[in-house]
Amino acid sequence: MSDTSLGIGTGAKVAGSDAGALDAGARVADYVALLKPRVMSLVVFSGFAGLMLAPGHIHPVLGAVAVLCIAVAAGAAGAINMWYDRDIDAVMRRTCARPIPTGKVKPEEAVAFGIVLSVCSVMLMGLALNWAAALLLAIANLFYVFVYTMWLKRRTPQNIVIGGAAGAFPPMIGWAAVTGDISLASAALFALIFMWTPPHFWALALFRRGDYEKAGVPMLPVVAGDRATKLQMLLYTAILLPLGLAPYALGISGVLYAAAASLLGLTFLGFAVWVWFDRTERAAKRMFGFSILYLFLMFAAMMLDRAPGLLPRLAGWVG
Amino acid sequence: MSAVERSEEAKKRLRARNWALLAALLGFVIIVYIVSILRMGGH
Hints:
The structure holds two protein chains of two kinds.
Chain A: H1 3-6, H2 16-23, H3 28-34, H4 37-53, H5 60-84, H6 86-89, H7 107-128, H8 131-152, H9 159-163, H10 165-179, H11 184-207, H12 209-215, H13 220-224, H14 226-243, H15 246-249, H16 255-277, H17 282-306, H18 310-318
Chain B: H1 3-40
């Protein structure tokens, strides 16, 4: 369905056949889209990593329930975010095809859907695992909705710096699901995602600046310009390089992870340097893509490092 | 698209939403049941 046919940002009327499709009500897939499944995948993976890296043992079924709660809560926060941001989503090219701006799901249905899922996932986390993990899950959701979405996003270029904390919670929640507490090690996992978030989103904002300008969202490239943004990206990725070694220093993971983190950190920094010198959008696009891979591989390396006997077995299969 | 066709599409989507809701509720009940058994077993 094209943006034009829906009249998004064009003032055009909804075409006949599309109007008919909208009258028929939402598809199940439209509700799934409200949960931002692509964003959810990285949240689930980092939450699962926190669960795997934590000392102690939980029943695999309870572990699966914890991951499910993290996934559903993250999706629920996404649905509430889509409800609140429906006005700016409609004018941005990246978001105008979402279920609310296209009229597929009514705003009040989306927010109710988000609240119900959020409450259910927090309650289930508390009942199935422990209330420390449930409290962290609730804080993450409340932070994303109230602090990031409603307070910071439209007010300050530091929106994703502070708001990024919401996305940094999942490994800490996974960890707490096993141990029932917060430790320095789980805080290091939190810090890793927290420092990764700004260069990740600013890379996106560099090549989607027009969208943010049109919607009135004060992302750093819009407010301070490309040069200042690129400098900030360099600084954050430079800090991320030694910070990435914190899990090794704290004993969460071993030498394999340390080597992978160094290599990935240097590559990420290399992308930031490329973005600094690049006058086109090409480097920013590449850096955005790599940033997702970076976080995925960092947590994958931590888990691989901790898997007992996995490396010799892999070597045996290969050899 | 005629009004009748639209109505059929609406019915189809409503049916799909109802089945999805039923599956979600049943899934939730099963999860709570399994969790209860595991927690009572000392996990």
